[in-house]
Amino acid sequence: MRTSRDDPPSRAGLRRLAGALLLGGALLGAALPAGSPAAALDAAVRTPVPASGYRNAREAVRSGVRDYNAGDKEGAARALEYAAGQGHALALWKLGRMYAEGDGVPHDDLKAFEFFSKIADENADEGPDSANATVVASAFTALGRYFLDGIKGSYVRPNVERAYEMFNYAASYYGDPNAQYNLARLYLDGTGVTQDVRQAARWFNLAAEKGHPAAQALLGQMLINGQGVPTQRARGLAWLTLARDAAEGPKDQWIVSLQEQALAAASERDRAEAQAQVDGFYRRSARAR
């Protein structure tokens, strides 16, 4: 069977890969700080876990989600920390997101990295149809982003090869659109891989079909410019229009600008065809729900 760099690693290979996240050394590309035991990579060791006031991890997660939605993020963190100590994947993921964003807790990328690492280590055998699949895929994608830039002042050094492995696994095995988008960016920019705009277009397309706005916008631009794909101006404008429809706030202003430029330059025929494709996309999405 022909294999390529886009083939996801084997289960055994993934287990070794994920396990290395918590054991340090080769995967991190740097030794741990002096005096730091390998166990310090385990988020449960670094995070104080309150005395149990819950019957089980599931109850703690329910309580944490309830507190979070009610605006009590401190209470949510306490409940989630208890569930995380029991290895509950959703609790680990939610805490990772909270620390990554400084959402109700102090911003701490290293702590977030460790929570995501624990998910990868303990759920390496989760299949794409499992209950935890979305959480596991998201954790691998988050780890990929941390490896891309490293975490300043910590043992997590920039490691583009590891970032590629994280993105590629989540994109190929789990079909995660965020991972597919990040993988496409590596190919588009030639970061850690040989630049390959056709591969970039392929991964952007997979993410775009799942409603990823940034992937839709960049794929649309590539189709309009004939970059790595045959020029299809109407289809490119359609993707840009879908991306603009989903754009949120100032962070997505670049999407709005791209769509406005493409629309201004489009012929009436291309505009009409693009709108028909947009309408068709929404109809298919509604049927799929």
Automatic annotation (TrEMBL):
The entry's protein name is Secretory immunoglobulin A-binding protein EsiB
Q: Quote the InterPro entries the UniProt record gives.
A: Sel1-like (IPR006597), Sel1_AlgK (IPR050767), TAT_signal (IPR006311), TPR-like_helical_dom_sf (IPR011990)
A Pfam family found in this protein is Sel1
**Which PANTHER family does the entry link to?**
ERAD-ASSOCIATED E3 UBIQUITIN-PROTEIN LIGASE COMPONENT HRD3, SEL-1-LIKE PROTEIN
Matching entries from SUPFAM superfamilies are given as: HCP-like (SSF81901)
Superkingdom, natural source: Bacteria
What range does the record give for the signal peptide? none
